[in-house]
Design a protein that fits this description.
The complex is a heterodimer of chains A (about 260) and B (about 260). Chain A is mostly helical and about 260 residues long. Chain A has ten helices and no strands. A six-stranded mixed beta sheet of chain B has the order 6-7-8-3-9-10, sandwiched between helices. A four-stranded antiparallel beta sheet of chain B has the order 2-1-4-5, with helices on one face. Chain B is globular. Chain B is of the alpha/beta class and about 260 residues long. Classes of the chains: A mainly alpha (about 260), B alpha/beta (about 260). The complex binds adenosine-5'-triphosphate (ATP) and magnesium ion.
Amino acid sequence: MHSRRLRRLWSVYGGYALGFVSLFLIWQLASLYVVSSVLFPPPTVVFRKGVLLVRNGVLLEHLSASLQRIMAGFIAGSLLGIPIGLAMGSFRPVRKLLEPYTEFLRFIPSVAMITVAVIWFGIGEASKIFLIIYTTIFIVILNTAAGVSAIAPNKIRAAQALGATRAQIFVHVALPATLPYILTGMRLAMANSFTTIVAAELIAANEGLGKMLWDGRLFMLVDDIFVSLVTLGLLGFAVDRMFRWSIYAFAGKYSPAT
Amino acid sequence: MPLVSFHDVQKTYRSLQGVDYMAVEHFSVEIEAGEFFCLLGPSGCGKTTVLKMLAGFEAPTAGQILMDGRPVTGASRDRGVVFQGDDSLYGWLTAVENVEFGLRMQHVRKTERRERAMRYLELVGLNGQEQKYPAELSGGMKQRIQIARALVNEPKMLLMDEPFAALDAQTRSLMQIELASIWQTTRTTVLFITHDIDEAVTLGKRIGVMRAGPRSQVKGMVEVALDGARSRTDDVFLRYYKQVYEMIRDEVAKSIARAE
Ligand SMILES: Nc1ncnc2c1ncn2[C@@H]1O[C@H](COP(=O)(O)OP(=O)(O)OP(=O)(O)O)[C@@H](O)[C@H]1O
Ligand SMILES: [Mg+2]
């Protein structure tokens, strides 16, 4: 019994654990023997610096600044993008009307919008949240609209023949059938949000993980740079796992493969 | 008065290249209330087209379809549909939730609709499977859910588009027996589409044989004066089989020749 559970745990998480251990091991060896330089600190040094920055609260301050911006922009962008995507997927005139916007704007990377955002909204929170919304909304719209057009026509027809009204079909068929696509769009958007927030904070911010990177460069705090990088990696990984987990927990039945 | 009548119905599809295809023309048929009517024809002759027009999913380009003397203008609860594939089932709902979907849309109370759905799940032999999702069920079970989902709404008529075509031979013949007994108890009017002569003779009270497309119509009718359990080895069964076969043979050949 006990050993079987252990084996199961191993088969689920063993690969991950091994992967992470080897990642840090290779990093450690590389920084000790291959590129032995203060410019490439080994993980032990980075870890010690990380603990220090956690103790004095600096890391947490940067981390929460970035995370709050991402969350605010991501939630707002999704809340805007989902209904727009649903409308575009459901009604041809709406699609025709909005497609020029989405098709044009989505090719302007959010990173390229940083300058405009700062000019319009200053270097405060507003410009960051604007950029995250911008980076979120198009992916969510596109995926949602694609999900609507991927609904099998027979699902709609069956509902019609069962006496459902248009509104009922929207709520009880179109929406649930599209949910996996919406969630996939949001997951992709979340990954993009990380890129955007770091770029935005590099250029104009008073705190945040990107600002930490920039300060590290300015004051030659190489260890700080690496702490920020590792934090970004771990944070992204954790958020994505959480996303996948919640898709699985709350919407697993909506999609055959998660 | 027949329950359903097609009068000179025509359906022209416009293809993406702008070339028109007239699938059926001067299609006329009458279906009596309580009848089990089989529509048989070679692949691509327009059987699904006819069903979609009666269901109200597509409008005819000419002619008229009447049900209870009134023109069909759109989908309605009067006509339950069982689709050819399983893509009409709702993957996010359990078997029983799929079956009670129509009742839920009608705002039937939860306890009542659950009870009625369970009754129909039992009728199609799916007791014990009600909490499973469609992805967890076999092809035959999924078709049973579709049948129960349509029947629980108590439609005046059931439209079935090759519901057993994708099943293996054993399951198919089992399902045919069950459908026959369901029809014996409910006496719902059925339009049953198939390209399988054996299936048509097994189930139908009347069989309409369609010509190969384009401009397909009913070539002839065969009335099957067999009751209750029909055996494939009966002389009478074989005679009907032969009669239908003679009628459809040329059409199948034509449809294959046109496809080449
Ligand atoms: N939406 C459509 N647009 C254009 N042509 C169509 C469309 N639907 C059907 N057709 C054409 O109309 C003809 C009849 O199609 P239909 O689906 O009714 O045939 P069927 O008898 O149901 O065939 P099968 O037995 O293979 O299901 C076919 O030649 C088909 O190519
Ligand atoms: Mg067909």
